[in-house]
Amino acid sequence: MKWMKPCQAVAFFLLVTLLFALAYNQSPLYTSNQHQYFLHGLAGAGAGDLTEDWLAQTVDPTPVFSWIVDITTRIGATPAFFVYYALLMGVYLFSLVSIAEAFIPLKKPSARFSFLGAMILLHSAGLRYLFSQTLGPDWSYLLEGGVAGQRLLGPVFQPSVFGVLLLLSIALYLRRRTTGAVLAAVLAASIHPTYLLSSALLIGTYLVDTVLIEKRLRQAAGMSVLALVAVSPILIYTIIHFTGGSAETAARARDI
Asked: What number of CA atoms fall less than 13 Å from residue 123's CA on the CB side?
């Protein structure tokens, strides 16, 4: 949006994000498995008697997300969860636009508006319902769906939706904003450690491109150091809490 002033660009982002969020739709709080991911955060905030819950006393697999839930609940801003997700939807949408611009001409405002309109339509709840009724439920999430029922977006705010930061990372790298690209990928993994492998593969790809194609060894070294430093907190946390132990304990855990 180079043709806009900064304040206009922010207003445009918020307006289109609102339209996209309304079209995509969100389910009520604690729908599906959202209650599982909110549990540690709600317990930390002292909600009800959740501190006595067995699952709430187990090791938290997504501590950063739980911290977000904890703080938001403590200040009584529960509706903000819908706002958080709406903003992430905006990140998803505009990251797609930015990536598309690297390969197809979207410089004219009319082309950009047409692309945005198409993306909003293709992600709309109405179209999902139509696909589910005519083609089957597996077609509901046509663009953002993956294998095993996994997807970047979905009906509720949960750690996996921060996977949109991986798209943001790609968009930033295509614009040669390498620091932002690395930090976006690391942030996705920090909030949802399942993305550690995906983030590592992305950053590894950036490094290969920077070294072999761009021939910038010093920049690649700096990116490597930044990535290792930024990811170390969640990586250390994951290693300490979710690796090791006896084979018997691991087998028992899998059985449970």
From this structure: 28
Q: What's the confidence (pLDDT) of residue 4?
A: 67
Whole-number Cα distances in Å, 253 to 50, 59, 86, 207: 23, 13, 36, 37
Q: What are residue 151's DSSP bridge partners?
A: 145
> How many Cα atoms are found within 13 Å in the side-chain-facing hemisphere of 239?
6
H/E run at residue 171: helix 164-174
φ and ψ at residue 59, rounded to 5 degrees: -65, 135
CA 22 and chain centroid, separation: 19
Q: Is 216 helix (H, G, I), strand (E, B) or coil?
A: coil
pTM, to two decimals? 0.89
CA-wise closest residue to 31 among 84, 71, 81, 83:
81
CA-closest candidate to residue 167, choices 187, 149, 194: 187
| C-alpha–C-alpha distance, residues 94 and 172, integer Å | 11
Q: How far apart are CA 91 and CA 49, in angstroms?
A: 36
Please give the structure tokens belonging to residue 93. Answer: 């949408």
Any idea which residue has 């004219």 for tokens? 108
Look up residue 167 and give its two tokens.
């798209």
Judge whether 188 and 165 are in contact, CB under 8 Å. yes
Residue 190 near residue 231 (C-beta atoms within 8 A)? yes
Within the chain, which residues score under 70 in pLDDT? 1-4, 147-149, 245
